[in-house]
Amino acid sequence: MALFAFHHSGDPVETEKIHDALAGNLCRCTGYRPIVDAALTLDQNPSDRFAREAEAKTASIQGLALSDSYDFDHETFHAPQSLDALLRLRAAYPDAYLLGGGTDLGILASKDRKRFGRVIWTALVPELARIERTETQITIGAAVTYTAALPLFDELYPSFANIIRRIGSRQIRNLGTLGGNVCNASPIGDMPPCLLVLEATFIARSVGGVREIPADAFFVGYRKTALAEDEILEAIRIPMPQPDTIYQAHKVSKRFDQDISAVIGAFALTIRNGTVEKARVAFGGMAATPARAIKCEATLEGAPWNAATADSAGAALNSDFSPISDFRASGDYRRRIAANLVRRVFEETGNSTTLTDVMAL
User: Fold this and answer.
1) For residues 183 and 223, is the Cβ–Cβ distance under 8 A?
2) What is the pLDDT of residues 44-89, one digit of tens each?
């Protein structure tokens, strides 16, 4: 199915693209080489039965009106098609589940057999699917999928783009949304640490108006955000990259592709004349919420960017966090890994001749 999706994606039939399409599929019989060889024989523009039937079905449903709500067996599914309609529904039903791509919520239905009562789907709201860019910032709608956002991150923040590629297969990235990942507020979510160091702002909206919430104030508890009951996350605003600043993110998990993080660290370090002038460091998997490492940042700022500083900053994480032990990793392992990630950032950047080379890593 992964290769079937790749076959119809329109992507060039290249080895790198094929490996990306197969990421997360574990083969224990023939190995990957013959699978990749088979993929290399695929036609980039298929005209098979599926393609023909898809075109016919698309033509047959064009012009049909979509209903804004569906009821079945004491459950209601709302599909608003405008931001105003979504806000009215949120105000009327603050306890309803908001559904984006369903990559988290869907598991509750399929695995736990949960009944939701009322669901409000955001995917048909055009205002939430926009991506806007100015000279100073980018604004990403809460319903923008990972796939749609990926080219922008590839261009501006390539290290964070690599984190997105490890979130799931391309099928998952075609559905999963940045807003859903943020509002899920998981302490091991992949995007929150990255958005914390990027100094993102979260745009919240309700029928009563709009307000801006800094990323530092958004995650208020375990799987809890600062959104009010009648608010939705409308968009995420991210400043453009700053000069002389290193942006990196590193994720540690038991399996490289499509696995939940044990620890994820994100870094934004402004370095001039060999000195760290500004540092923003954030981690997931180290506390009940994604959080900045304040003591680590203080150790970095004003210090020379060298191995000793990196090691001191890593040691300062012991004052920032007291991670728990669970089935993914022990607390001691998490502390050691987090410190090692600080050192890794130095090893990958400290000896570079230019920051331009660093930002292209």
Assistant:
1) no
2) 777 778 877 877 777 776 666 667 889 999 899 999 999 999 999 9
Least confident of 10-19, 126-135, 221-230: 10-19
Distance of CA 345 to the CA centre of its chain: 20
Backbone angles phi, psi at 357, to 5 degrees: -65, -40
Residue 63 lies in a domain: no
d(CA 338, CA 346): 13
Domain boundary among 11, 36, 57: 57
Domain range for 309: 245-359
Q: What is the pLDDT of residues 164-211, one digit of tens each?
A: 988 878 888 889 999 999 999 999 999 999 999 999 999 999 999 999
The count of structural domains within the chain is 4
Higher pLDDT, 2 or 148: 148
- 8 Å CB contact between 269 and 304: no
At 351, the pLDDT band (50, 70, 90 cuts) reads low
Pair 346, 249 in one domain:
yes
Whether residues 105 and 151 share a domain: the answer is no
Q: In terms of domains, do 113 and 216 share one? A: no
Burial 143-159 (b: 16+ CB within 10 A, else e): bbbbbbbbebbeebbeb
Residues 177, 269 within the same domain: no
The model scores a pTM over 0.85: yes
> First-to-last CA distance in the chain?
32
> Is 163 in the same domain as 253?
no
